[in-house]
Amino acid sequence: MLIDFFLIALKIITIGMVLENINMLTNRELEVLDLLIQGYNNNEISQKLMITNHTTKAHITSIYNKLNVCNRVQAAVKYISMQQQKA
């Protein structure tokens, strides 16, 4: 029973941290993340947003750091999961 309490508390804390991370993303990072989730590559993201490849990579690196992930798939899964938890 005590273990259940701690597991629930841990889940609540984790959800709070995840939601806090999503709120840390800038509007531009959210735009980049949306395109990333849609399957656009860096060059396509750059063209769509009219920014350089270097800037696109910087945004993606920042997104990875803020979401504490290492790749596009993890970022997409985490973002979609966070959106579902927000609702």
Work out the helicity level.
Answer: over 70%
Assembly state (oligomeric): single chain
Number of domains: 1
Provide the CATH top-level class.
Alpha Beta
Second CATH tier, the architecture: 3-Layer(aba) Sandwich
Might you state the CATH topology name?
Answer: Rossmann fold
Question: Largest sheet, described in full?
Answer: none
- DSSP strand count: 0
Strand fraction:
under 5%
> Quick one: CATH superfamily?
Response regulator
Strand-pairing-aware structural class? mainly alpha
Order of helices and strands: HHHHH
Beginning-to-end CA distance, first to last residue: 29 Å
What does this structure look like?
This protein is mostly helical. It has five helices and no strands. Helix 2 (27-37) packs across helix 4. It is globular and about 30 Å long. The two termini are 29 Å apart. The relative contact order is 0.15.
In short:
The chain is 82% helix and 0% strand.
Summarize the helices and strands and which ones pair or pack.
Layout (H helix, E strand, L loop, with lengths): L1 H22 L3 H11 L4 H8 L3 H15 L4 H15 L1
Helix pairs in contact: 1-5, 2-4, 2-5, 3-4
What keyword list fits this structure?
87 residues; mainly alpha; Rossmann fold; 5 helices; 0% strand
